[in-house]
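hiii, so i know i said id send this last week but things got crazy w the move. better late than never?? heres the sequnce for the chain we talked about at the cafe, plus the structure i predicted for it. fair warning i was half asleep when i ran it
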Amino acid sequence: MKLQGRVAIVTGAASGIARATAIHFAREGAAVMAMDRDAEGLLETVHAIHSQGGQAESYILDVSKSAETQAAVRATMDRFGDLHILFNGAGILAYGTVLETPEEVWNRLLAVNLTGTFLFCQAVLPHMMQKGRGSIINVASTTGAHDACAHATAYVSSKGGVTLLTRSMGIDYARQGIRVNAICPGPTDTPMLRKAMTPDQLTAFAASFPMGRLGQPEEIAKAAVFLASDDASFVTGALLYVDGGQTAEV
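okay and structure toks below
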């Protein structure tokens, strides 16, 4: 029970990596406020936590709206009385080069993936600074943190921004007792990836990496537990690659 007695916000918790992280945080003893725009998916996540004896509530919001992120943090404090962990897992994906990416798509990817991360950090930091402790975990990507890829201009740009935001905050708030790190998942078997590729494309994609398979959301979630816990007490400003060897080979 590495997170016993702690309170965590998990955004993007209706599916994928963030859902798995919310479930693993609760297994380790944390009270979880699971957040997303997808009300039905959130209920499934909270039900999964409750069925295992964990503590969780759901909260519906758009992470790109400052007023909503501020209200979400206040609601968490009102419900659970404290806040120790923020996991910024909300994210979206779109493909296209610069010439193929409409301005509205560019703006929405940046708004969710990068601005949403920034706004939640901005909302939780005053409380964490007052307490002199906290762990913020952002979700970047191997694509954007380590390298780029073709035909994903907006996504790569947003995740590249998350990596440098993470490092910047790791420096700025280290002496206030707040640790800020990023997980950089490699190709992971999530609904978002399955919507982007056909089954045959996924199989070929997975086979091209050293481990020859996709990662599982639970494997990323276990890394998040490490970063959230006291086991990572001397880790801040770090990018943790959980990618089956992808970036080692690239």
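btw The first strand starts at residue 7 and ends at 11. thought thatd interest u
miss u guys!!
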